[in-house]
Amino acid sequence: MNAPFIVRTRPHIAVIGAGPGGLAAAMLLAARGLRVTIFERDSVVGGRTRTLQAEGGYRFDLGPTFFLYPRVLREIFASCGADLDDEVELIRLDPLYRLIFAGTDPLTIDATPDLDRMEAEIAKINPADAQGLRRFMADNRAKLAAFRPVLERPFDGLADYLSPAMAKGLRHLRPWASVNDDLARHFCDPRTRLAFTFQAKYLGMSPFRCPSLFSILSFLEYEHGIFHPRGGCGAVSAAMARVAERLGVEIRLNAAVERIVFEGNRAAGVDVAGTRHAIDAVVVNADFAHAIPGLIPPVQRPQWPDGKIAAARYSCSTFMLYLGIEGALPGLAHHTILLAEDYRRNLAQIEAGEIPDDPSIYVQAATQTDPSLAPDGHSALYILVPVPNLRNGLDWAATTQHCRRLALDRLKAIGLHDIEPRIRSERIVTPQGWRDDFAVGYGATFNLAHDMRQMLHLRPRNRFGRGRGVYLVGGGTHPGSGLPVIYEGARISTRLLMEDLGVAAAATPGD
Ligand SMILES: Cc1cc2nc3c(=O)[nH]c(=O)nc-3n(C[C@H](O)[C@H](O)[C@H](O)COP(=O)(O)OP(=O)(O)OC[C@H]3O[C@@H](n4cnc5c(N)ncnc54)[C@H](O)[C@@H]3O)c2cc1C
């Protein structure tokens, strides 16, 4: 552990970025009596988890639409004297989502947390696989229980692997197996396996490469539910900002941090628009690949020199269409996932830096559950197409219209034939837009890839760099990307920060 700082009466912590990780960290630190200032370069809070206000009164989530495993955020709210369920209405969805296996004879199933009904849905794919469901659930229940301690603690080095609890959890990593390999133990039909492994895409990864541990993603959906926060996931970020402000956090919008200033090896200030703010520690929530090279001098991060950041492996990107639609969308599910007929080819094309010719797409029609997101008699449609990140050098100025056409044409496969004449508002975000407008390095929307060479102590660490006083939160640090793990990461990093400052952290359940 690093030596404690000399503690002033009320240490001042700067949080760079008001994304989910930054907001959670600010709440936790302020609740322990620290003075916290969030500096956010944008004019709104939430980062990728924000609400987009579109012309004509339509509202969309910019990024996350699946709110999973609220337990972590509920605990964070409770430790701050607030109640998540008082601040945001969480609507549990059933069905969870509609899955369409594309092809000449498409197959549709409605995934449901009701296991009897789900067995019947799986039987539509392959009757032999229905009996694998309860085994899959039991197996992953045990896996999550064993692995939770790994997700709830920092990994500073090899010594962190030595405790018995770690050994038990890490056994489940099975680094030689992918999620797809792992699921073969339960389901024989490749389509059933896909129904329980496409969730690797939440990490921007292929189920054929993503470590087997991540079969817990689909388990979490079936066991703990998928929620739609009324108003969208952006409403959760807004609630976090509200609670943070109640706790005394100052949120400065349109305030990009230019650099972290070090005195010796200690973070001592942040520069914002020509003004230096003295600090005792800094929490960096800004996207790792985008921000770290500019914020922290290389001498302070010998483990992550610029060359290593540039050469790291990153998630795929996403091409986004946010459409305000006149009229209703009868029969459309809240979430629909269209899985390409040749899913492997779809992934291979993305990995090769090509736009898939027959892409998988994800469509959210949040107004099916939450009419507040569009004017009366209108609907809001969010379309996501996984595409290569910017490392492959695609020219997005030349590719955007092609991708838009591809996405609109794919809507027919989910039963939406008459959309184009009804479009009343339209916004596109390309990988280039993710980079230039939303400060996402390489447009890699799900951060650093979650492969075994970039996980645990090999991921940028929660207590970061060679000096003192810099902590990371967000998808680029341990445990990784996705809202529940980002919130958990904020607990880990703030615990380290408070330990280093000699401030008592709130107890984490399970500690
Ligand atoms: C399209 C998409 C869909 C997703 N879907 C889901 C989902 O359904 N469920 C799920 O759990 N997760 C999902 N995710 C993943 C993840 O949960 C979100 O991306 C999440 O918002 C990442 O949070 P973060 O804490 O890393 O910070 P970010 O959301 O990246 O926020 C970082 C903040 O830092 C700010 N910043 C950057 N540089 C500076 C600077 N120099 N000074 C000040 N501020 C700065 C940025 O403006 C931003 O506000 C999705 C992501 C995307 C993009």
Automatic annotation (TrEMBL):
<dbReference type="InterPro" id="IPR008150">
    <property type="entry name" value="Phytoene_DH_bac_CS"/>
</dbReference>
<keyword id="KW-0812">Transmembrane</keyword>
<dbReference type="InterPro" id="IPR002937">
    <property type="entry name" value="Amino_oxidase"/>
</dbReference>
<keyword id="KW-0560">Oxidoreductase</keyword>
<feature type="domain" description="Amine oxidase">
    <location>
        <begin position="21"/>
        <end position="480"/>
    </location>
</feature>
<dbReference type="InterPro" id="IPR014105">
    <property type="entry name" value="Carotenoid/retinoid_OxRdtase"/>
</dbReference>
<keyword id="KW-1133">Transmembrane helix</keyword>
<feature type="transmembrane region" description="Helical">
    <location>
        <begin position="12"/>
        <end position="31"/>
    </location>
</feature>
<protein>
    <submittedName>
        <fullName>Phytoene desaturase</fullName>
    </submittedName>
</protein>
<comment type="similarity">
    <text>Belongs to the carotenoid/retinoid oxidoreductase family.</text>
</comment>
<keyword id="KW-0472">Membrane</keyword>
<dbReference type="InterPro" id="IPR036188">
    <property type="entry name" value="FAD/NAD-bd_sf"/>
</dbReference>
<dbReference type="Pfam" id="PF01593">
    <property type="entry name" value="Amino_oxidase"/>
</dbReference>
<comment type="pathway">
    <text>Carotenoid biosynthesis.</text>
</comment>
<keyword id="KW-0125">Carotenoid biosynthesis</keyword>
